[in-house]
Amino acid sequence: MLLLRSRPLDRACRLGVFGALGALAGTGFLFAAAPAHADPSPALDRFSLSVGAFSADPKFNASVNTPYGSLQSGDIKPGRVTMPRISADMLIGDSQGISFDYYQYKRDYTGGVASNNSFGGLGSLNAFGNASINTKLDFAKLSYKWWLGTGNTVFGLGAGAAYYRATLGASATAVVNGQVGTYSESSSDNAIAPLLEVGVRHAITPDLRLFADASGVWKNNGRFHGNIYNASAGVEWFPVKNVGVVLAYGVTNIDLTRENNFADTRLKVRLQGPSAFLKARF
């Protein structure tokens, strides 16, 4: 049975997220107050903040290593999960801007966790009964964007950095070298990696707009490395001037590896599904 539990973000993560949003909002209000030389494309906003959720149907695969072997979930589809998501965009001038995005993926899986043979001849690990694997991923990105075009349709190119932190843990009742006991391991690490983005915005009217985005994060070296790719498309509708709703459909692929002395601990997740946001623009 797969359980989703919601916990408050740790203090460092809360400070990082709200610090980035505060800096972005403060700068946005300064630019909004400054006189503008020209109006941007109707497909763009001077400053916007979106708060909502991503409802995904994940495909999940994780392995956590112990000195005696690894505990592995195999490929499973544990059921739909809803993740909170925050994003913000700010224009600098009329064709450049800053973009911020944050979400958290968290799942606990209890069920048919398999085990494999030993690492380095230290023994063998044979799990039986209930075993569990728990995962948590915090992801935040900050990028600088260039928008090409001045009419109802604009194309964007972005470059920046992404911060991600992944925690993997496992526990099981197992036989190790003939001894029965409860064994558990946990692995946690974080990294900063380069980010590239592309996007397109089209305004059917100033209050009804279409968009599509794609981004990629990769880090090939270091103890904690991997890649995260995302693509989404959707529609924005503003029934009142400054407040609207955003509906989108997206796909995210996550493949992260943490190397240790025994073997690689790995998290692979594919998230696919709709998102809904409440958006404020200024």
> How many domains make up the 3D coordinates?
1
Task: Determine the fraction of residues in helical runs and give it as a percent range.
Answer: under 10%
Q: Compute the separation of the termini in Å.
A: 45 Å
CATH architecture: Beta Barrel
Q: Using the coordinates shown, work out and report the CATH topology.
A: Lipocalin
Main β-sheet, in a few words?
10 strands, antiparallel, barrel
Strand order of the largest sheet: 2-5-6-8-9-10-11-12-13-14
Q: How large is the radius of gyration?
A: 22 Å
SS content category: mainly beta
Number of helices: 1
- Can you identify the CATH class? Mainly Beta
Count of individual beta strands: 14
Extract low-pLDDT stretches: 1-21, 23-37
Shape: elongated
Q: How do the SSEs run, as a string of H and E?
A: EHEEEEEEEEEEEEE
User: Overall pLDDT, averaged?
Assistant: 82
Question: How would you sum up this structure, described in words?
Answer:
There is one protein chain. With 282 residues, the protein is mainly β. It is 8% helix and 67% strand. It has a single domain, classed as Lipocalin, CATH 2.40.128. It has 1 helix and 14 strands, in the order E-H-E-E-E-E-E-E-E-E-E-E-E-E-E. Strands 2-5-6-8-9-10-11-12-13-14 form a 10-stranded antiparallel barrel. The longest helix has 23 residues, at 11-33. The termini are far apart. Mean pLDDT is 82; it is low at 1-21 and 23-37.
